[in-house]
Amino acid sequence: MINEIIDWFANSGNASFVTFLVSIISIIIAIIALTTSIRTQKRQLAIEEKREQDRLSEMNKADLTAQLVSKSSRPHDYLLRIENNGLSEARDLKILLDDLPILKHPAIPQGLEEIRQIGPQSPVQYLMDISQDNHPPFDILITWSDDSGEPGTYKTTLTF
């Protein structure tokens, strides 16, 4: 059997055919490898583009949080501190405290001005008068617009 195979390859026509066949198979494998490589590069490029888009989007977003902060000078005085931790200005702020516009809430003293914007990496605060009738928990909902074009929303329950 081995002698028959050796004799078959001894024929120059058969050896050339096998060489040609091996070359074709090599070309097919190279094309498959190239196609796979191109697909992988396209996927990697798409992932990088998405990361860059997300990074740019984050740069255009405001990120607001709220908390109650005690003022040590008077026991019933608290501050409602709203902080923008984002890299974009928060504009057109609408703040609801227990479903009321903030300046209509009984814990907010009269005569304060409504804050409509917060710069990037900046806090603002409202003075609050906490009493037996007006005490936490308070539900707060803050909505705003920023450079991302997506409406911003923050909702939580404020407690001591």
Describe the fold and architecture.
It is a single chain. The chain is an alpha+beta fold. Helix content is 36%, strand content 29%. The chain folds into 2 domains: 2-59; 64-158, G protein-activated inward rectifier potassium channel 1 (Immunoglobulin-like, Sandwich), CATH 2.60.40.1400. The protein has helices at 2-10, 12-59, and strands at 64-70, 77-84, 91-97, 100-101, 122-129, 138-145, 152-158. The strands form 2 sheets. Strands 4-3-6-7 form a 4-stranded antiparallel β-sheet, with no helix packed on it. The protein has a 3-stranded antiparallel β-sheet with strand order 1-2-5, with no helix packed on it. Strand 3 (91-97) and strand 4 (100-101) form a beta hairpin. The mean pLDDT is 91.
Report the CATH superfamily of the largest domain.
G protein-activated inward rectifier potassium channel 1
Number of strands: 7
Overall helicity: 25-40%
Distance between the termini: 92 Å
Q: What sort of overall outline do the alpha carbons produce when their principal axes are compared?
A: rod-shaped
Rg for CA atoms: 34 Å
Which architecture of the largest domain per CATH?
Sandwich
Class by helix and strand content? alpha+beta
**What low-confidence regions span 5 or more consecutive residues with pLDDT below 50?**
none
Largest sheet report:
4 strands, antiparallel
What is the CATH top level name of the largest domain? Answer: Mainly Beta
The number of helical elements comes to 2
Strand content: 25-35%
Give the strand order, joined by hyphens, for the main sheet.
4-3-6-7
CATH topology name of the largest domain: Immunoglobulin-like
